[in-house]
Amino acid sequence: YSRRLAFLAGEAAHAQGTPAPRDALTLMIANQPHAWPKDNNILLREVTLLLTAATQSTISALVHFFLRLERWLDAHPEDRLAIESDPQFLRNAAYDSIRRPTGAPARIRRATEDVTLSSGRSIKAGEKVALLLVASNTDRKHFGEDADSFNPHRVVTDTLPWGHAFGGGTHTCPGRPLATGSRLTGKLDIDGVMTQIARRLYRAGIRLDPAHPPVRDTSTFYDVYTSVPVILTNP
């Protein structure tokens, strides 16, 4: 914190001849005086959120991706060859898994003023609104009749293949390109971090340990696991 304050004050930049870093903490400190002057805990909350979003969300999503894909491959063993032969197969599989939320099932906001949406629906100041992620991301109009199921061959043409998993508009998750590999133009021919990890694990021969099945975490309502034992047959 002190080092970034020095950068912003010009002391470190002047002494080292380098510009201030453009990371999230620096930008928040730079905008704190006029953006949220009465909230002394904003930096702690935002940094904690970024750390959580960068680790727990991806880790949970990766576990679900692996388990869903393994169930699919058990039923469609011919697709195991596609993991290596078709670069897009794992990408599509990751997108369709991300579509099924593993975190909060809804995004809730409170209106700060009266507003009328483009649909004509009116929302009064103080009212809460919620985006129901499970319902929106399993809408059959966009994702087909099997929208409730995992399908790595799903073709989506009128919306993003991961639905609203990363939010939208000005509050879109900044980690989306990292997770999905997609560019801002929407091109989807790059491995995101989930696909990269999965690709390397499958090259190492990852399989579920038949002697030790996955164990769900019963201490939370979130769909997470305490353990998912695996075997690497080709480390």
- Termini separation: 42 Å
Tally of DSSP helical segments: 10
What percentage of amino acids are in beta strands?
5-15%
Average pLDDT level: 86
Low-pLDDT stretches: none
Shape: globular
H/E topology pattern: HHHHHHEEEEHHHHEEEE
- Range of helix content: 40-55%
What would you call the structural class? mainly alpha
Strand order of the largest sheet: 1-4
Specify Rg, calculated over alpha carbons.
Answer: 21 Å
Give a count of the beta strands, DSSP E runs of length 2 or more: 8
Major β-sheet, in short? 2 strands, antiparallel
Question: Briefly, what is this?
Answer:
It contains 10 helices and 8 strands. By secondary structure, it is mainly α. It is globular.
Set out the fold topology:
Layout: H1 2-9, H2 11-16, H3 24-35, H4 42-75, H5 82-85, H6 87-98, E1 106-110, E2 115-116, E3 122-123, E4 128-132, H7 133-137, H8 140-143, H9 176-180, H10 193-203, E5 206-208, E6 215-216, E7 225-227, E8 230-232
Antiparallel strand pairs: 1-4, 2-3, 5-8, 6-7
What does this protein look like?
The protein is mainly α and 235 residues long. It has helices at 2-9, 11-16, 24-35, 42-75, 82-85, 87-98, 133-137, 140-143, 176-180, 193-203; strands at residues 106-110, 115-116, 122-123, 128-132, 206-208, 215-216, 225-227, 230-232. Strand 2 (115-116) and strand 3 (122-123) form a beta hairpin. Helix 4 crosses helix 6. The chain is globular. The chain starts with a helix and ends with a strand. The mean pLDDT is 86.
